[in-house]
Every structure is written in structure tokens, then in C-alpha cells.
# Entry
Amino acid sequence: MKIKSVVAVPISPPPQQFYGRPNRTALGEVVRVDYGVVKIETDEGYSGIGEICTVFTPGGRSLCAQIERYLVPVLLGEDPCQINYLVSAMDEALSGAEPAKAAIDMALFDIVGKALQTPVYNLLGGMVRERVPLSHSITYGSSEEMANFAVQLAQEGFATVKVKVGQGLEKDVDAVREIRKAVGPSVRLRVDANMAWATTKEAIATIRRLEDYDIEIVEQPVARHALDAMAELRSMTDQPIMADESVWTPIDAMECIRRDAVDVVSIYVAESGGLLKAAQTFSICEAAGIPCLIGSMPETGIGTAAQIHLGVAMTNLKFDSDVCGVRYFSEDCLTRALKIENGYAYPPEGVGLGIDVDEVILSRWQADVEN
Ligand code: MG
# Structure
């Protein structure tokens, strides 16, 4: 089998608004989304699809151009089954651009699964669980809005909610206190600063105040590369510290582990550069005794399906994961909606990624890039 064509197109799926206005976190306000879709076709009639999703720069439009220029020449005419080879060839041709490479990796796994008549999770070592337990984020708002949303999520079956912090010490404490009061003791509550705290001192001041509310994990308290600060924080608090923005690739995970900077690692398919490398990061962390979960950009149905296949196959998935990105958009592009129910995501039935996209919706998202 040979790769016949690779097409990358920018898309702008419509974000969901949790409180009737654009969602906000320490990373900013989500007004427009700059993603992309990659379609790969082979000479044997099998085709695969993958999603470029990133909230960081460069965005989808720029990454589609990079795919066209640097990665298409590497892929054309090659055997899509040689994913290990193609991933390293892409790394040689273009450094970084992980979300672009991830979309290609997803499409390759989709093709190989279809050709072998098996779901992608079987290509990742097979199922160790039948469904992925979920966490859902609570973006910035008034403490009342955030608490009401937390109650709604708990009623929908989410056993874990992730409170976005970084609004300022008193606002963060108010929000977490009101959420804990509203959902009671049984819902797990983690906080995500998205790098908001400038110093260890600022981080520890807030973390100490939040400790009263039974916090499961403190996610990415300081800047991506501030690994000394992360290590220092670990020595100052018993709260588990999770790396999110700090870990994109397997090499990043290795560095965090070497520097004693993490208790938990949040792994992204997009930031890893695809399923293959995400699975490698799971293994590196497993060898180091560091538990992991799967983080979200958020993805539309395409990327979410890839995450679910990864999530059911990784032994070192130890915490509820953000594998419900479709909920962060007001519509999805799959013809059969993913089964996300009662706080769990289930792998789609069928071979490959097990999904089909609605081309009408995709064209509309494509047109919205220009609007
Ligand atoms: Mg995060």
C-alpha cells in the first residue's frame, strides 16, 4: 500500500459558551478556533483522517501550510503501515509542529486499522479498560456561575471537575470554596492554573489557601519551562503537581522526571505529535513511576476519537481524563456522535478510528476560517 495524497485544510469549529459568553482561562478568551483537518488517501482505496488542534501558536492555518511544504513530500509514495519510520522522517523534515504531525499520525493509524480490519486501540497494544473516565473543566466566571456549572457536571455523571484558577487569589479561593460547597465531598476537584502564577511564592500562597477544599491535583502552576519552580513547589506542598504545558513530547517528559518536577503528567495526542509518541510518553512515565492522564485542547470528534483509543489502551492512565473535547464546541463533525455518557467516553465501534465525518459540516467549518 502506498500514500497517494495528503491534504491539510484549516477549519474553525464553533466554540461552546458555558456562561453565554466566550470561555476564558489563564490562556485567554476563546473567541475563534484555528484548527485543521488532514486527509490521507492510499492507492488501495483506504483513507484516513486526523485533526490539527492547538490553542497555541502556530495555529491550524500556519500548520496546514507547513504540512504542505515540509511533510507532504516525506509522505507521498510511502507505505502508511510504516508509522515508526514516517514519524521519524517527519521529525527530520520539520522540527516542532507537533499538532500537525499528530494529525498525520492519527490518519495513518486510521488507515492501518482499516486495512487490518481492527480498531486503533488494538494497534496500541489492545484494551486494558472498556471506557475512559472523564474530567470536565470549569472555565472562569463568577463563583456562582462556576459552582452552578460544577453541579450540572456532577449531575451529568462527571466524577471529577477541573477548576480553572489564576483569576487572582481571593477569586480563586471563592470559586473553589463555592464549588466544593455546591458539589459536596464526593466529586473530585482539581485546579488548573495554566501557568498563571508568576513565582513559586505566588503559587504556594494560593495552593495553601486551596488545601482546605480537598484538591486532587494542582495542574501547571507556573510557566512551561519553570521546572525548578515546579520541583520547589513539590517540596513545599503535599498536593500532587501535574505537568501539562510543560510536557509536549517524550523528551519533555524525560526532562520533567529528571528534574523531579512532577507527580502526574497530562499527555496530549496533539502536543506529543501523535498517538505513537503519546504512547511513548505513557511508557516513559510508567517506567519512572509517574501516573498519567490525557489532556485536551479541546479536540473535535476526530481528535477525541483518537484520544479514546489511546485512553482504553494505556496501562498507566491513572486519573480521570479530559477526553470530551466535543463538549467544548456547539456542534461536532462526526456522522455518528461519540458515546460520551455518565462521565465516561467509549471507543467508537468499527475499524481504524471508527469515525466518519460529515462533509457538509466540515466545509462550513472550512468556510468559517475566512469569515
Ligand atoms: Mg491544562
In short: The CA atoms of residues 98 and 273 lie 4 Å apart. The first helix runs from residue 60 to 75. The chain is about 40% helix and 15% strand.
